[in-house]
Model the fold of this input.
Amino acid sequence: MSHFLSSADTSTCSTSCGDAPYSFGMAPKTLAFTAIAIACTPFALLIGWNYLLPILFRILSLTIGSTFGWCLRKGAEGRRSMIIRVTAENEAKFQETKAQEKDSSSSSDDESWENIDSSIAGSSGNGEKASRDWDGIVGFFHPFCNAGGGGERVLWAAIRATQKRWPNAKIVVYTGDHEVSKENMLSRVKNTFSIDIHPPTIHFIYLTTRHWVLATTWPHMTLLGQSVGSLFMGMDAFSLLVPDIFVDTMGYAFVLGLCKILFPDMPTAAYVHYPTISTDMLDSLDPKTAVGTQGVNAGKGVGFKGALKRHYWKLFAAIYSWMGASVDVVMTNSSWTQAHIKSIWGPRRKQRGRENSIAVVYPPCAVHEIERAVEISEESEKKRQKYIVYIAQFRPEKNHQLILQSFAEFVKTGTDSAKEAKLVLVGSVRDDNDSRRVYNLRLLVNELHIKDQVIFQLDAPWSEILQWLGKAFVGVNGMWNEHFGIGVVEYLAAGLIPVVHDSGGPKLDIVIDVDGQPTGFHASTTSEFAAGFEKALSHPDPLSVRRRARLSSHRFTEEEFAKKWLAELEKLVAMKS
Done:
C-alpha cells in the first residue's frame, strides 16, 4: 500500500515538477506573450483613453452623428421657416408702430448702443456690412431663463448686445419655463434688470425635458446624472430647432459636446460661470491637502466610500474635459474660473487644435444704477452706520456660519469699532431647505449671544438692498472659491469696504489694489475675518477707500461686458460668413 502511494506521488511530482518554475503550465512563448500583454495593458489603456477614444468619437460624429443631425435639421425646417417669416412680420409691425409713436426714448437707447457697436465694428476682419447684415439664428441654451439671478443677467445682456450688433439676426432661447409667455418674460427682464430686449427678433423654444437636470431627479451620482439628463434636453432642443450658432450660458458642457457630434460644422460657444468639477473640488476630498477643510465636500474622500467618490469624480472630470474640448469659443466669468477651465479643458482643446483662447468676460453688474442711488461724499460719509452687510442666498456654500462666528469673535474684542456694530444678512429664501438653514442660523446666533446685533433681511426687494448699501459701512463675503461674486462688485460700486474670502473671484478679480492702494481686505479664518472687520471699521480714511472701490467697479459695467461679449461672438459669426 505504501509502495503504491509512493509511486503515485512520484508520478505526480514528476508531472508537475517537469515545468519551469512560475510557468503556470504554459509554453515559454505563450508565457512571454502573456507577460508582455499584461505589462503593456496600462499603457494601452492610457493610449486608448487619450487618443483612440477621441478618434472613435470623431468617427461617430462624422458618420452616425452627422446622419442623425441631418435628420434633425430636416425635421425642424418647418419651424425654422416659420421663425424667419414671423420675425419679418413682427419687425414690420414694430417699425410701423414705432414710426407712429415717435418714441424719443427708444431713439436715445439706439444711439447709446450705436456707440458700443462702432467701438468694435468689423473686428473680425469681415467689415462693418458683413457684420451687421448677418441674419442667421443664434440659439441660447438657458433652460432656467426666468430665474432672475446673476446668470440670467448675463443671458439677457448678451442677447441685447447681440441684437444691437446684428439687428437682422434671429435670437432663440431654449427654456423650460412653460408657464411664462414671451410678453411676461420680457417684462420681467425689464423690471428685474432694466434691460430692453427687441421683441420682434427673439423667440422662445419650450423644452419638456427640464426635469432631467434637477438635483431631485438624481439623489445619487448627481453630477453625472444631471449631465446625462442635459443630453435629453439637448436632443429635445435640436429636435425642435437647429440654429446656425449654438451658445450655452448655463454650464451644460455635455449639450455642447452633443451638438458637435450631431452638427460638426456648427459654431459653438460656452459662457462658463463655474466649472462643473474642478481640481479644487477633487483636492478638497482629501483632508490632508491645503483645501481639505474647505467646501461642502471637505474631507469626504476617506474610507472605501470616499475612494469610490474620488474615482467617480476623476472619471467624470475626464469626460467633462472631452466635452469642453469640442467648444469653439469659451468665455469665463473670472480669472479663477478661467484657470480651472484651462486646467481641465485646455490640454484636450490643444490636442484638437482649438485656436481661440479661453477669455475672461466679466458678468454685467448694476454699477451705474448703484452709482445713481448711492452717494459717496464727505456728506454721505456722516450717514454711514456700523452695519456689516452680507448679501447672499442662504445656500450651504455661502458659509454664513463662518461670518456669524467671525462677527461674534469681533464683538467679544470690545473695541470701539465693535461697539454698536451690527451684522445684516440679506438673502432670498428659495425653498424649505433654505428656510431650515435660516432657522439653524438663528439658533447659532442665540448660542453665540449676538442676537441683538444680527439682523435677518429675507427676500428683500432691490430697493431695500440699495438702502442697505447706502447706509452700511462694510460688505462681507464668506464663500470659499466664489467663482465671481456679483454681490462683492455691488459692495465696490456702493463704496462699502469689502472683507472677502481669500479665494476665487473676490480675491483675484474684484477686491484688488487700485494705484497700489487697497480697496478692501481678504480673510480665510474666523480670526482673520474678525481682524478684517476691525481694520475696516477703524480705518482712518474710509472715504478714500470707498472712492477707490467705486473706481474699481467700473471694470464690471454692462458696456464693458457687451464689448468683450461681442468680440468673442464675432468669431462664431466669421465661421458662418
